[in-house]
């Protein structure tokens, strides 16, 4: 049975290697519940902040059902011809409650979520979306240096992949009934928190934590817009 008092989620997405983990980390620090998330890896030093059960047991099987790559690399699903998934809301909310959610703001972060965004929008029509953007050349460069990003072996290949994501983001931003905030990760890395701070200030239950966020966002992990250790 769905919890009718469970408020709409914050849904954080963007192309892989664009800074979705860094963004989700800030939202988590500010008080949103995300459940049991994958921890630190060599390619996400501060943690991935992505609910492990939802990624492994809900998102990946859904992509596989459509004949798409479970890693969201190649082939991509046809965002305009997705299979129905009426159980999505129930499965996601049950996961969060099982992992400790009781009340207040909650989030799911997933780079692959944008590839099937209409399904998530139908499940959570009142969700607050955050779309993370990053310079395409920097994303492609990061993909080339990240072992699990392996479906293309050229910068040009990854740039074409980023271009497909940008088409999706454009469609999302044009959907007037969706609440979408666009965040550019380069702004955050250089210390301009204005957009994400405004999002936090406008969201009931979240509280901006300047001290802990300044500690979390380490510019040393980035060099001229390119990660030394990537935050995907």
Task: Provide the descriptors you would attach to this structure in a database record.
232 residues, Rossmann fold, four-stranded parallel sheet, two-stranded antiparallel sheet, disordered C terminus
Protein described:
Helix 5 (136-144) packs across helix 6. It is built from 9 helices and 6 strands. Helix content is 39%, strand content 10%. A hairpin with a 2-residue loop joins strand 5 (222-223) and strand 6 (226-227). It is α/β, with parallel strands linked by helices. The chain has a single domain (13-227), classed as 3-Layer(aba) Sandwich (Rossmann fold). It is globular and about 40 Å long.
Biggest sheet descriptor: 4 strands, parallel
Overall tally of structural domains: 1
The CATH architecture category equals: 3-Layer(aba) Sandwich
Strand order of the largest sheet: 2-1-3-4
Distance between the termini: 34 Å
| Large-scale geometry | globular
What structural class is derived from the secondary structure elements? alpha/beta
Instruction: Report low-confidence residues grouped into runs of 5 or more.
Output: 224-231
What is the CATH T-level topology?
Rossmann fold
Q: Supply the number of helical segments.
A: 9
- Average pLDDT, to the nearest integer? 91
Radius of gyration: 17 Å
Order of helices and strands: EHHHEHEHHEHHHEE
Estimate percent helicity: 25-40%
The CATH class, by name, is Alpha Beta
Beta fraction: 5-15%
- How many DSSP E strands? 6
Quick take:
The protein is an alpha/beta fold.
SSE map:
Layout: E1 10-14, H1 20-29, H2 52-65, H3 88-98, E2 107-109, H4 117-123, E3 128-133, H5 136-144, H6 155-174, E4 179-184, H7 185-189, H8 194-201, H9 210-216, E5 222-223, E6 226-227
Parallel strand pairs: 1-2, 1-3, 3-4
Antiparallel strand pairs: 5-6
């Amino acid at each position: 049975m769905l919890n009718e008092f469970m408020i709409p989620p914050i849904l954080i997405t963007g192309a892989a290697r664009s800074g979705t983990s860094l963004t989700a980390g800030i939202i988590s620090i500010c008080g949103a519940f995300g459940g049991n998330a994958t921890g630190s890896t060599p390619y996400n030093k501060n943690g991935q902040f992505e609910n492990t059960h939802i990624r492994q047991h809900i998102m990946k099987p859904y992509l596989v059902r459509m004949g798409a790559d479970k890693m969201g690399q190649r082939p991509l699903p046809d965002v305009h011809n997705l299979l129905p998934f009426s159980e999505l809301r129930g499965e996601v909310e049950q996961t969060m409650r099982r992992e400790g959610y009781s009340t207040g703001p909650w989030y799911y972060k997933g780079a692959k979520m944008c590839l099937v965004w209409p399904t998530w929008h139908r499940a959570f029509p009142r969700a607050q979306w955050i779309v993370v953007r990053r310079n395409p050349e920097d994303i492609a460069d990061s993909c080339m240096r990240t072992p699990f990003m392996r479906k293309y072996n050229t910068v040009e290949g990854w740039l074409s992949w980023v271009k497909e994501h940008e088409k999706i983001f454009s469609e999302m931003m044009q959907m007037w009934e969706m609440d979408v905030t666009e965040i550019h990760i380069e702004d955050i890395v250089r210390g301009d928190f204005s957009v994400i701070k405004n999002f936090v200030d406008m969201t009931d239950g979240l509280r901006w934590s300047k001290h802990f966020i300044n500690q979390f966002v380490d510019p040393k992990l980035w060099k001229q817009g390119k990660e030394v250790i990537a935050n995907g």
